[in-house]
Q: What sequence folds into this?
C-alpha cells in the first residue's frame, strides 16, 4: 500500500506532501495543477533512471523549471513493514538514492534501490507501466492493440528469439559457404606449394653442383687478390711516405727560416736594451712639485670665483641688524600691551550708564571717551608701522646671514694675491710637466730593460731549436733517399700481382653468382615449405570449422522447430491462468447479471475477450464504452494477479477524460468496486465525480 509521497522541485510542485490510505484515493484539481506529476513522482521513486529511460525522457523533464535539483520520497507498507524510498536528482542525472525498511537502510544507489524495489514488490518496470499505472487516455489500450497482451505476457520474446536464431542460422550458413570456399582454395594452394618445392629442390641441386665446381678457382682468386692488395698498399704507403718526407723537408726549411728571423729580432731587442741603459743614466733629476702645484691651482680657482659682495662684506652689519630687530620687537610688544589696555577701557566706557564708570563709579565724560578712541587709533597705526619695519629688518637679516656663510666659506682665500699666485702657478706647471715627461720616459726605459732576461733566454732557445731542425732535416733527407730507392721495386710487384688478380676475377664473379643463386633458391625453398605448412594448418582449421558449422546449423534448425512448438503451449498455459483470474475479478466488478463469465481467447495472433451470456457469447468490441472500461480494468487486474500475485496498488490518471456523464458514472462505480480486489487505488480527475466514493481526497 502507498502510504505517503513527498516531493521537492518535482515538475509542477515546488514542495508538497501527499498522504494516502486504503481504498480510493482521489486526487482532484484543474488541468495543469500537477495531478499527473504526482503519478510520475511515484513511478520515479519506484524505478528511478529505469523509468526515465522507459518513457523516453531525461531527468531534466522531471525537474521544476529554474531549480538545481529535485527530490522524491515514497513511503509504502509491504508485508506489514514500512519501506521508504528516497531519490535526489539534477538536470544531468540522479544524485543519490536510498531505501530503508523500518528505519534501517537496506540499499543505496539508483540501480541497487531499483533492484530492491523489484524484488520486494515482485514487480518489474514493464509490469508497473502496462498493468498498474494506467496513464491518461490508455484505459482501453489493452483491448485495442493486438500486440499489447503478448508484450505484457512477454510472448513476443519467442518471436524475438526466433528472429535471433534465424539470423544466427543465416550467419552460420553464410560462414559455412565462406569457410567451404576457403577450404577449396587452401587445397589448391597446398598442391601448388608441393609442386613448387619439388622444382626448387631440383634447381638448388644444379646450383650447388656448379658452386662446388668453381670453388678451386675461387680459392686461387682470393689468394691472388690478397697478394695484389698487399703489394698495392705497400707501394701506396711508400709513395705516401715520400710525399710526407718531401713535405716535412719543406716544413723544416720554413721553420729554420722563421728561427733565423726570430734570432735577428731578439738580437735587435738586446741592442735596444743597451741603448735604454745609456739613456736612463742621462735623464735629468726633477724635484717633487706635484703637491704644491695642485694645491695652488685649487686655491687660485676658488679665489677667482669669490663674489665681489663677499669680498666687501663686513660682519658687523649682521650684528647691528640683530640688535635693531630686538629693539623693534620689544617696542612692538610694549605698544600691543598698551593698546589692549586702552581697548578694554574703551569697551567699559561704551557700556557706561549715567556718565559714570561701570567699574569704579567715577564720572566719565564724552571728551574722555574721545581721547581714548584717538589714542587707540594712534597706537594701532604705530603697531602696523613697527610690523612693516620688522619685516624689512628680517629680510635684511636673511640676506646678511647668507653673506655671512659665504664670507666664512671663502675667508681662507680672501687674503691670496692672485697676480703673484698665477705667476707661481705657471712656474710650477712647467716643472710638473717636465717631471711627468721624465718619469714616463724612465718607465718606458725600465720596461725595455726588463725584457733583457727574457730576450737572453729566448736567444738560447732559438739557437737550440735551430740545431734540432738541422738534425731533423738530415734524418728526413736520408729516409727520403731510402724510399725513392724502394719505390720502383714495390710498384713492379704490385703490377705483377694485379695481372694475376685480373686473370682470375671473371671466374670468381661466376662463382659468386652461382653461390648467390644457390642461397636464393634455399630461401625460396624454406619460404615455400613455410607456406605449405601454413596452408596445411589453415586447411585443417577450415575442415574443423566446417564440421562445427554443420553441427551449429543442425542445432539452429532444431531450436527454431522447438520455439514454434513452445510458444503456443506457453500461450495456452498463461491464458488458462489469466482466465481463472479474469472470471473472478470480472464477476465481482460486473454490473449485469446476464454476464455469466468472461474468457480471453487467441486466434491467428489476435486476442479477443468474449462475454458469455445465456444467449451465447459477445465479443468485447460490441460492448458499450462503459462495459469496455469495466472489461479493460478487469483484464489488467487479472493479468497483474496472474503474473505478479495480488496487485499492491493501481493508479489511474484521468480515466473519465472525453467520456459523457453516464460513462463517467460507470467508471466511478468501477473504481469503487475495484478496491474489493486492489487494496489501494489512486485516481486523478479535474472533475469531482470520484469524491462521493473516495476514502481519501487530495485537492490540488
A:
Amino acid at each position: 500500500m502507498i502510504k505517503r509521497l513527498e516531493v521537492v522541485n518535482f515538475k509542477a510542485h515546488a514542495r508538497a506532501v501527499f498522504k494516502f490510505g486504503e481504498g480510493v484515493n482521489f486526487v482532484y484539481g484543474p488541468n495543469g495543477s500537477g495531478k499527473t506529476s504526482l503519478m510520475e513522482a511515484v513511478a520515479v521513486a519506484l524505478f528511478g533512471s529505469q523509468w526515465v529511460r522507459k518513457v523516453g525522457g531525461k531527468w531534466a523533464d522531471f525537474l521544476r523549471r529554474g531549480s538545481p535539483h529535485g527530490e522524491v520520497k515514497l513511503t509504502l507498507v509491504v508485508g506489514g513493514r514500512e519501506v521508504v524510498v528516497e531519490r535526489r536528482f539534477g538536470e544531468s542525472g540522479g544524485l543519490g538514492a536510498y531505501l530503508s525498511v523500518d528505519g534501517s537502510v537496506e540499499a543505496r544507489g539508483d540501480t541497487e534501490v531499483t533492484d530492491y524495489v523489484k524484488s520486494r514488490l515482485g514487480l518489474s518496470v514493464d509490469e508497473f507501466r502496462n498493468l498498474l499505472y494506467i496513464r491518461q487516455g490508455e484505459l482501453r489500450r489493452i483491448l485495442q492493440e493486438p500486440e499489447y497482451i503478448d508484450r505484457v505476457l512477454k510472448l513476443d520474446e519467442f518471436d524475438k528469439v526466433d528472429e535471433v536464431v534465424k539470423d544466427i542460422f543465416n550467419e552460420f550458413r553464410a560462414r559455412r559457404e565462406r569457410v567451404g570456399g576457403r577450404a577449396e582454395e587452401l587445397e589448391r594452394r597446398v598442391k601448388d606449394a608441393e609442386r613448387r618445392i619439388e622444382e626448387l629442390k631440383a634447381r638448388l641441386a644444379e646450383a650447388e653442383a656448379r658452386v662446388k665446381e668453381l670453388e678451386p678457382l675461387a680459392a686461387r682468386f682470393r689468394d691472388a687478390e690478397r697478394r695484389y692488395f698487399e703489394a698495392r698498399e705497400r707501394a701506396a704507403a711508400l709513395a705516401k711516405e715520400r710525399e710526407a718526407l718531401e713535405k716535412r723537408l719543406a716544413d723544416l726549411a720554413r721553420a729554420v727560416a722563421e728561427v733565423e728571423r726570430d734570432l735577428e729580432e731578439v738580437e735587435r731587442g738586446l741592442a735596444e736594451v743597451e741603448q735604454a741603459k745609456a739613456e736612463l743614466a742621462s735623464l735629468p733629476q726633477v724635484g717633487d712639485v706635484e703637491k704644491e702645484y695642485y694645491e695652488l691651482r685649487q686655491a687660485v680657482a676658488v679665489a677667482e670665483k669669490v663674489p665681489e659682495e663677499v669680498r666687501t662684506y663686513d660682519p658687523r652689519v649682521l650684528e647691528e641688524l640683530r640688535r635693531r630687530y630686538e629693539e623693534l620687537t620689544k617696542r612692538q610688544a610694549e605698544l600691543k600691551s598698551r593698546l589692549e589696555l586702552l581697548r578694554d577701557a574703551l569697551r567699559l566706557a561704551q557700556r557706561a550708564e549715567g556718565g559714570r564708570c561701570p567699574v569704579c563709579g567715577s564720572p566719565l565724560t564724552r571728551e574722555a571717551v574721545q581721547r581714548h578712541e584717538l589714542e587707540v587709533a594712534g597706537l594701532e597705526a604705530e603697531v602696523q608701522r613697527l610690523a612693516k619695519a620688522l619685516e624689512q629688518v628680517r629680510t635684511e637679516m636673511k640676506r646678511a646671514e647668507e653673506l655671512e656663510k659665504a664670507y666664512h666659506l671663502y675667508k681662507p682665500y680672501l687674503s691670496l694675491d692672485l697676480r703673484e699666485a698665477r705667476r707661481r702657478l705657471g712656474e710650477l706647471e712647467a716643472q710638473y710637466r717636465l717631471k711627468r715627461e721624465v718619469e714616463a720616459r724612465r718607465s718606458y726605459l725600465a720596461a725595455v730593460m726588463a725584457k733583457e732576461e727574457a730576450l737572453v733566454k729566448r736567444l738560447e732557445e732559438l739557437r737550440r731549436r735551430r740545431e734540432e731542425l738541422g738534425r731533423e732535416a738530415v734524418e728526413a733527407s736520408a729516409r727520403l733517399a731510402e724510399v725513392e730507392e724502394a719505390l720502383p721495386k714495390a710498384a713492379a710487384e704490385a703490377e705483377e700481382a694485379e695481372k694475376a688478380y685480373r686473370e682470375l676475377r671473371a671466374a670468381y664473379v661466376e662463382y659468386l653468382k652461382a653461390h648467390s643463386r644457390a642461397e636464393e633458391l634455399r630461401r625460396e625453398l624454406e619460404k615455400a615449405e613455410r607456406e605449405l605448412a601454413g596452408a596445411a594448418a589453415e586447411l585443417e582449421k577450415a575442415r574443423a570449422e566446417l564440421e562445427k558449422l554443420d553441427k551449429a546449423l543442425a542445432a539452429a534448425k532444431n531450436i527454431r522447430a522447438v520455439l514454434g512448438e513452445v510458444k503456443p503451449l506457453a500461450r495456452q498455459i498463461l491464458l488458462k491462468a489469466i482466465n481463472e483470474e479474469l472470471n473472478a475479478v470480472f464477476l465481482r466488478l460486473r454490473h449485469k447479471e446476464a454476464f455469466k463469465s468472461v474468457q480471453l481467447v487467441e486466434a491467428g495472433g489476435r486476442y479477443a475477450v468474449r462475454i458469455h451470456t445465456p444467449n451465447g457469447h459477445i465479443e468485447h468490441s460490441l460492448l458499450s464504452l462503459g462495459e469496455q472500461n469495466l472489461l479493460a480494468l478487469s483484464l489488467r487486474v487479472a493479468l497483474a494477479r496472474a503474473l505478479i500475485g495480488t496487485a499492491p496498488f493501481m493508479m489511474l490518471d484521468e480515466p473519465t477524460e472525453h467520456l459523457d456523464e453516464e460513462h463517467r458514472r460507470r467508471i466511478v462505480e468501477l473504481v469503487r468496486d475495484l478496491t474489493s480486489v486492489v487494496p489501494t487505488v489512486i485516481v486523478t480527475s479535474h472533475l469531482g465525480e470520484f469524491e462521493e466514493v473516495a476514502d481519501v481526497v487530495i485537492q490540488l
